Amino acid sequence: MGGSTSKGEEEKKFSSDRVLLNVYQPTGQNRNIPGFGIYHSGVEVYDTEYTFAGGSSNRTGVFSHRPKKNPDAAQWTFKETVDLGACDYSKKDVKEMIGYLSSQFAGNTYHLTSRNCNHFSEALCRQLGVSFPSWVNRAAKVGDAFSGLVGNSQPGGGAGGKAGGAGERGRTAAALGDAPSQTAETVDLYATGCLDVSSVACLNETRDNNVAGIFPPLGQKALGNSLLESDCDEQLLLFLPFLRPCKLVAVVFHIDFTGDSASCPKTIKLFKNCPNMDFDNAVDAAPTETILLQPQQQGFDRGGINVNFVKWQDLSFLTIFVEDNFGGETTKIHHIGLVGKDPAAGTTGPLKKMT
Question: What residues pair up with 25 in beta bridges, in sequence order?
Fold first, then answer.
């Protein structure tokens, strides 16, 4: 009773199937400003810790190490472990998540306030279905003013470029994965011809601003406005069939939040391989994934959101249900992009529909 807890006892408090966030603080002198702690973090799952560091090349900046043993100990000292909840995925699933995020977080994309180790930790936490504590990344609200406190903000530049990070932008587009870029492994599923554009359909669309405006035949420009608008109320139900099974990685929504914020979609439910839905089904059924858009996440030119791609293997039909918006009579969407993995991405010539 009242005795101290040994290091061994402390480590045994957490099971290996938990998702843990290991937080580090600057080594040596106190370089934190009250209320704006500067921290480095790594996500521990199945006895391995994953983090992100800057570098000068386009190779991945994601790496792993023994939990609580940050290799840059001269700069960062372990502070505490935050238990984020149970891991509902297998080791294989986690490996696939790390593989995908490794392709997204190249070392030369590191930025002290907008793409640091904590942004990687938050992205991995989202894939794992747990919440990332905002206080860990709070300092980036004051932006580059902190760069002199923790080192060069450019990749490879001292503590900042190595493994450190500061900054919170809330749940901005970057926290959700930014407008996703296509890598050697991820492609635009519309551009590759994987999406069966001729069979795309939508319920409750207007005659003039219908789904053909945002999904024109491949190689052709849309006729009229590049806009999809709901008709009787704010809800939309889109049906997107694919010519062959694919893997969905991210969905991109282009909406005019700055000009017409009330008509922007708010709650979006995604259903995997459910081709025979109506509005009642969409309201009552459990979605494969739900996206809750926030005003600060949106702008006309970006709105890319990484989905939990472990759930989106072998996708042959995507149903998108826009349940509500920000108070407008109708909902308006200027573009929907689908980023994923197409097994025939390198194929040339016409592609035949699955039978």
Answer: 77
**Inter-axis angle of helices 91-104 and 117-128, to 10 degrees?**
140
> Cβ(230)–Cβ(204) under 8 Å?
yes
Q: Cite the beta strand spans of the chain per DSSP E.
A: 18-26, 40-45, 48-52, 62-65, 76-86, 187-188, 201-203, 228-229, 236-254, 265-272, 289-292, 304-306, 315-325, 332-333, 335-341
Measure the N-to-C terminal CA separation of the chain; round to a whole number of Å: 70
Residue-by-residue DSSP string for 79-93: EEEEEEEE--S-HHH
Dump pLDDT digits (tens) for 13-64. 555 689 999 999 888 754 544 444 688 999 999 999 999 988 877 888 898 8
Burial tier of 229 (Cβ tally within 10 Å: 0-12, 13-18, 19+): buried
Cβ atoms of residues 118 and 7 within 8 Å = no
3-state secondary structure of 235: coil
